[in-house]
C-alpha cells in the first residue's frame, strides 16, 4: 500500500522513508560518473549520497511503502532498493568503461601496451593511454551536462520500479547483456582506426624485414609505431570523444525511469 510522506507521522516511519531512499540513491551514487570513481574519497561519496537523498525525498516520498511490521519484510524492502540502485549504477558504469576499453585496443595496436601504468579502476596491467582516457571520460561527462541524465532516470525510476520491487529477472539479464555488448562494440569502433593502422604497419614491417634481413625490426619499428599512434590519437582524439559522447547519451536515455 502506498502512502504520502505526510501520512507517516511517527519518527520510525520517517526514518524508514529516509533509509529506503538512501538505499537506492546511495547505491546508485557509488557508481555514477565522476563521484563514483575510485580516486574519490569514500567520505566525499557518502556525503554526496546523503545530500542527494535529501533532495530526492520530496520527489520519491509520495511513492514509498508503509513501514512494515515484520523486520524481515523491512530488510527485504531495503535489499530490493539496494539491488535496484546497484543495477542502475552498473549500467552507467559499463558505458563509462568504453573509453578505457578503447584505450586498451589503441595501446595494443600502437605498441604502447608494454608501457604499464597501475590503475585501480582499469587494473594494474592497463596502459598509460587507457588511464588517460579513463580520467578524461568523467571530464567529458560533466562538461557536456550528461551527468544530469542518470539523476533524472533515478528520480523517474520510482514510477517504473516501485519501492520494494525489482525488475523481472529476465528483463534485467537481457538489459545487462545488451549493455555489455554495446560497450564492447563501441570500444572496438573507437579503436578501429588504430587497429587498421597497426595492421598496415605490421604488413609494412614484414615487407621491410624481407628486403633488409639484417635490420633489427623491433628496435627500429617500435619508436615509429608509438610516435605514429600518438600522432593518430592527436588527429582523431576529439572525434573519438564526440562519438562516445553521442553513444553515452543514448545509453543513459535507455536507463529505467527515462
List unreliable stretches of 5+ residues: 1-9
The coarse overall form would be elongated
Q: Please report which band the strand proportion falls in: under 5%, 5-15%, 15-25%, 25-35%, 35-45% or over 45%.
A: under 5%
The tally of domains stands at: 1
Strand order of the largest sheet: 1-2
Give the helix level as a range of percent: over 70%
Mean pLDDT reading: 82
Distance, first to last CA: 24 Å
Q: Helical stretch count?
A: 9
Biggest β-sheet strands, sense, barrel = 2 strands, antiparallel
Could you give the count of β-strands? 2
Rg on CA atoms, Å:
23 Å
Structural class: mainly alpha
One letter per element, helices H and strands E, the order comes to EHHEHHHHHHH
Oligomer: single chain
What is this structure's SSE topology?
Elements: E1 2-3, H1 11-29, H2 42-60, E2 64-65, H3 71-96, H4 98-109, H5 128-144, H6 148-160, H7 169-190, H8 192-211, H9 217-253
Antiparallel strand pairs: 1-2
Helix pairs in contact: 1-2, 1-3, 3-7, 3-9, 4-5, 4-7, 4-8, 8-9
Give a written overview of the molecule:
- The chain has 258 residues and is mainly α.
- It has 9 helices and 2 strands; from the N terminus they run βααβααααααα.
- It has helices at residues 11-29, 42-60, 71-96, 98-109, 128-144, 148-160, 169-190, 192-211, 217-253, and strands at residues 2-3, 64-65.
- It has a two-stranded antiparallel ribbon.
- Helix 1 runs parallel beside helix 3 (71-96), helix 3 (71-96) crosses helix 9 and helix 4 (98-109) runs parallel beside helix 7 (169-190).
- The longest helix has 37 residues, at 217-253.
- Residues 1-9 have low confidence and may be disordered.
Amino acid at each position: 500500500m502506498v502512502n504520502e510522506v505526510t501520512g507517516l507521522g511517527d519518527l520510525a516511519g520517517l526514518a524508514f522513508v529516509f533509509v529506503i531512499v538512501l538505499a537506492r540513491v546511495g547505491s546508485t551514487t557509488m557508481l555514477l560518473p565522476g563521484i563514483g570513481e575510485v580516486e574519490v574519497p569514500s567520505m566525499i561519496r557518502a556525503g554526496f549520497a546523503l545530500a542527494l537523498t535529501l533532495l530526492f525525498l520530496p520527489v520519491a516520498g509520495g511513492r514509498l511503502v508503509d513501514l512494515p511490521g515484520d523486520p524481515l519484510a523491512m530488510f527485504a524492502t531495503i535489499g530490493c532498493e539496494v539491488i535496484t540502485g546497484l543495477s542502475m549504477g552498473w549500467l552507467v558504469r559499463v558505458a563509462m568503461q568504453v573509453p578505457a576499453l578503447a584505450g586498451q585496443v589503441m595501446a595494443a595496436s600502437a605498441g604502447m601496451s608494454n608501457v604499464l601504468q597501475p590503475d585501480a579502476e582499469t587494473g594494474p596491467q592497463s596502459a598509460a593511454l587507457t588511464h588517460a582516457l579513463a580520467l578524461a571520460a568523467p571530464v567529458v561527462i560533466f562538461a557536456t551536462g550528461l551527468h544530469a541524465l542518470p539523476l533524472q532516470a533515478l528520480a523517474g525510476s520510482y514510477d517504473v520500479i516501485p519501492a520494494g520491487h525489482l525488475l523481472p529477472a529476465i528483463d534485467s539479464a537481457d538489459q545487462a547483456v545488451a549493455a555489455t555488448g554495446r560497450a564492447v562494440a563501441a570500444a572496438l569502433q573507437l579503436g578501429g582506426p588504430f587497429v587498421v593502422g597497426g595492421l598496415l604497419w605490421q604488413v609494412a614491417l614484414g615487407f621491410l624485414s624481407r628486403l633488409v634481413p639484417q635490420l633489427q625490426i623491433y628496435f627500429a619499428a617500435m619508436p615509429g609505431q608509438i610516435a605514429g599512434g600518438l600522432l593518430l590519437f592527436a588527429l582523431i582524439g576529439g572525434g573519438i570523444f564526440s562519438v562516445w559522447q553521442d553513444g553515452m547519451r543514448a545509453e543513459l536515455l535507455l536507463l529505467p525511469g527515462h
